[in-house]
Predict the 3D structure of the following.
Amino acid sequence: MEDNTLKIPPGVTAQAFQIMNEDSRETLARRRFSPGKIDIFNASHTSLETLHEYRFLKDTEAERMLPGIINNRVQQVITDPAPDENAKAGFSKPRNIGVVFSGGPAPGGHNVIAGLFDEMKRFNSASKMFGFIKGPEGLLENRYIEITPGLVDTHRNMGGFDMIKTGRTKIDSGSKMEKALTVCKGLNLDALVIIGGDDSNTNAAFLAQHFKSSGIKVIGVPKTIDGDIQVKTEDGKVLCAISFGFHSAARAFAQNISNLANDGSSDIKYWHVCKVMGRVASHLTLETALQTHVNIALIGEELADYVDQERMSKGLEQDGQMDYNAYGITLRHLSRVICDIIVRRAAFGKNYGLMIIPEGILEFINEIQVFITKLNKIIADYNRIHDLDFHRSFPTLNEKLDYLRRISQGMMDKGRFPIWNIRDDELFNQLPSFFREGLLVERDLHGNFQFSQVKTEKIIMDMVKEYLDVLREQGRYKVGILRDDYVSLMDSAGMDSDLFAPALFKNPQDKYVLVKPDIISLKTLKLALVNAGMLDAEEETPQVLVNIFRKSQAEFKIQTHFYGYDGRGSDPTYFDCCYAYNLGLTAFHLIAGGATGQMAAIINLEKDFHQWQPAGIPIARLMHLEERKGRLELVMEKSIVDLESNAFKVFKAVREEWVAACECPDRFRNPGPIGFSKQVEEDRPLTLQLNALES
Ligand code: FBP
C-alpha cells in the first residue's frame, strides 16, 4: 500500500510544517457543505414514468445502429408511494456500479460521484462502486479503484477529476466494446455511469447498445464546461438547459477578467485580449460577457450569420446580382469591426479596454473553416490509407507543407485528394507560419480540431494592429483629450486655449477634443498652426502644444490571456455543486428503475430549485451524422448559441452600452469570486436566468 503521509523535512519545525500543510478554511467548509436534494430523493422509493409528450426526430442512421435503445422515451423520476415487494427488493438489492470520467475536466464531477455513491449506499450499504482510472482507457484496460466513503468525503464539492482522473480514449470499435463488456462483467457490474460531453455520451449510447443483452445498464451524465450539451424537444421544450461545469468555468473566467477590468481601468494603457475556452460554441463567451460587461465579446455563431450589407447592395446596384461573398465574415472584416470599437473608445480618452474572443471562433469564419475541413480529411485519409500517422510521418511544418504542395500538384495519391488544389495551397501559404502550423495541429482522438492549440487571438490581433496603423496614418485613430485638461495645460503655459482650439481640434467645443486628422506628426502640427496664422514658419512649436499633440497619439498596447484550463479546474459554484450532486442521485434512480441508454438530466434547471425535476433523456434520439476524421459519423449533436435566445438578444441589445464609447464611465461588472454558499453565490448562470424569462 502506498504511504501518502507527508514527512517533515529536516530543518522544518513541526509547527511550521503544520501551518504549511493545513487545508484552508474555505476547503474544509467546502467539503462539509451538503448540496440540497430535490425533494423526490427524500422519498423511500421512486419509479420511472415515461413522458410521451416529449418528442424528438429520429435519425435513420441512429435507428440502424442503435436499435436496442432508439425507442427509449424521456423518463421522469417520480416518487413511488406504494411500491410492491418486488419493486422494493429490486430497488435495494446490493449493486456494483462502475463510474468513469471522460473528456476534459469540469467542476462538479466529484459531486456526481458523491451523489451516486450516497444514494447507492442509502439503499444498500453492501453496494460497491468502482472508478475506472484515466477515463475510458481504464475501462478498456481493467484499471480501477474501489471508491470508498473516505475518498468521496475528501472530494465533495471540490474541482477537478483527480479522484479517478480522466482521458479522451474513444471506444469506437466492436472489439473495444467487447473488451469493455468483459471488464464490466469481470467486476460483476450492474451498471456503468459515463460522465462526459457529447463524444462521451456518444460512447455511452454505443455501449448501452452493446451491453443490452448482458443486462448491464449504461447511463450518461452531461458534463462539459463548453455548455454545448443542451437538449430541446422537436417542438422546442427545454429538457437539459446546460451541462454541469459550465457555470463554474464561466464564473472563474469572469472573475479573472473582472480583475483585469479593475487593473485595466486603473492603468488605462492596455487592451486585454482574453481568449476563452469553448471548443466550438461560444456559450462560455456569452456567459462571461454577461457576467463582466467587457467592451467587446465576439460570438462565433453571430459572425457565421453575418451579411455584409454594403457589399450586397453594391452588387445588386451594379449588376442586379447577389454577391454571395457578402455572406459570412472574413478575418479581415472582423479585424475592421474590432478596430472600429477601439477607435471609437479612444476618441473618448479610453485607449484601453477588454475583449473576449471565443476559442472556437475560427469554426465560424468561413475561409478558415474550409481549410480546417479539408485538412481534417487529408490527415484522416492519409492515416487510413497508409496505416501511418500523418504527424509522425511529417513532423515539421515544412514537411507537412511539402506534402500538401505535392497533393495540390497531383503528385501524391493521385485522384484521392481533389479537395486540395493549387489555389488552396497558394491561399494557405499566404497565412503566417504559426497559423498554418496551428491549422495542421494533430486532431484529438475523436477527430476534433484542437482549437485550444491555435493562437487565434494572435492572428486576429495582428490584423487589428496592422489596420490600426493605417488608421493612425490617416489620422483616424487618436486619443480624445478632456477639454478641461487642455484648458488647464494651456492656462498653466500662459496661452489662450480658446484661440488655439479651432486650429488644433476638429471638435473644439466638445467635452473630449480630438486633434484634427491631418495633424499626424510634429511637422503637420506646425503646418496646421502656421496655416491658421497661430505661428510663424520660423517659430518653434510651443512645448505645451507638442505635449498636447503627444497625448493625442494613440499607441495600441495589448496583453493577451487564455482562460481555459484554469476554469476547467476551478472549484464548483453553488449551482454546480447542487446540480452535479442531483445528477448523481438521478443516475442512481435511473439505474434502479432499469433504464439504459439514457442521459441523466434535470428538467427545469433554468428555474428555481424547487421546480427541478430529475429525468432520463434518450441519448440515441440526440444523435446525428457529423463530419469526423474526414467522414460522416453518428455522434451526439452539439448545441451552439441560439441567436434567437433571450440571453443572446439581451446581450445584443446592451453591448453598445458596454463599449462605452461616449462621455460615460465604463460599465464593467464584478461578479466576485466563486462561492459554494447560497448567501454569496448566484443560484444559476445568467444565461439560464435570461432564457427562463422567455417562457
Ligand atoms: P470536453 O468537451 O471534453 O468537456 O472538453 C472541452 C474542452 O474543455 C474545450 O473547451 C477545449 O477546447 C478542450 O476541452 C481542450 O482539450 P484538451 O484537454 O485535450 O486540451
